[in-house]
Write a structure and sequence with these properties.
It is a single chain. Helices cover 28% and strands 43% of the residues. The chain is an alpha+beta fold. The chain has a 4-stranded antiparallel beta sheet, with no helix packed on it. The chain is elongated, with a radius of gyration of 16 Å.
């Protein structure tokens, strides 16, 4: 293998793209819940969802 670090970075990037899960969840007293990841953002205010996909 000539470039092992580049190969590892490429494989990890493909894993991130292949698994569309939320990475972080923030809750403000259950009133506002925010879920986010590098490719997706969801906010729920009073249990009504709002989604933004990049």
């Amino acid at each position: 293998m000539r470039y092992p670090i580049a190969l590892a970075q490429t494989i990890l990037s493909l894993v991130v793209v292949a698994i569309p899960l939320y990475w972080w969840t923030y809750s403000f007293g259950g009133l506002l819940i925010i879920d986010s990841s590098p490719f997706q953002f969801t906010a729920r205010l009073l249990a009504r969802p709002w989604e933004y996909h990049t």
